[in-house]
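Worked example

This section walks through a single chain of length 410. The input is the sequence exactly as stored; nothing has been trimmed or padded.
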Amino acid sequence: MNILVLNAGSSSNKCSLYSLGGSESVLPDTTVPVWEAEIDWKPDTSAADLTVTTAEGKHRRTSTETSRQDALAQLLETLWSGSEAVLAGPNDIHIVGHRVVHGGQEFQQPLKVTDAVIAGIARLSPLAPAHNPAALEGIETVKRLLGDVPQVAVFDTAFHRTIPDEAALYPVPYEWAQQGIRKYGFHGISYQYCTDRAADILQHDAAAMKIVSCHLGSGCSLAAIAGGRSIDTTMGFTPLDGLMMATRSGSVDPSILLYLLREGKTTVVELDEILNKRSGLKGISGISGDMREIEAAVAAGNEHAKLAYDMYIHRLCSLIGAMAASLGGLDVLIFTAGIGEHSAAIRAAVCERLQWLGIDLDTAKNEASPVDIDIASPESAVRILVIHTQEDLQIARECLAFTDPRRYEK
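Given that input, the structure is written out below as tokens.
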């Protein structure tokens, strides 16, 4: 079965094709896509960079299509035409899965895309204005290219549907909750994958483990996972809440925002830009939101970069402690996504500060570019895992399960 996965972002769209044998009862974690592609739209222009990767290598080109949907269609057509083709034609695609960032309270499991589902995703777009419309563009483009091929929407918020009200609701008038204002949480597809992968690595039932999973990329969040289910997370009503991130502020005193607006020091539009694109690591360092550049600047003696780095570690450790408190203990600490997977320094700094939780890091393993292994010392009371998250693979799993539930057990 050929499963096409689209992972749409605000300025990019990543696509993968998985080819799964019909005799497989479980989609293995070693499955790799036979075709990968990415489109990056250049800021302030209609041009886009297209990258296609197959077993034959990586190919790059520039698209000058005037619409995002046309550029995406051009990218997808390389599946069956041109030098990067891996399929005989569009009919060789059997099902398509889409990452949809916000499902609200309406969508709490993967669903076949219908007109009603499309309308619901559109209604929720104000909660994820940079992402839900991009997912809809992908759905429409696939429909245009592939006709009636089944499409499945997989929601990033769905994993957090199990968070209890005492953790999900805000201490504001209850009428707000009745209007849908609550913690939804994000990165759920990644958290589901990492939870299942942790059970595989440790050969232990996920239902018996208390896990704090750290998804540390450009966007950062934590999840407290008990019995394989999310019971708390750091992102909230939107992906702006919680940890300090690359360019997002994370949690701040809401009175600061009221003060700035009341005193006429900013506007709502400017404030949105500041909090989402000019804060976090970039805002404090004045250099970049890229942790690699921050670490290099710290090594060069840049004080603002050092402050940004220290703030990042402080806030990360504080909220890991909060997640552990929600769990009433900690068995497993997971690091994943760009920073979590690749920054040995961040992992070491966090583990050093959290020794009081019984965490003891094996320094040699931590510095050896670990992938999908336990980097805790034998004496550690908490297992420390570095997991390469594979959201697209998880979406492919959900599509396979959707096609035949007996073939994949969650």
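What to look for: The chain has two domains: 2-155, 204-386.
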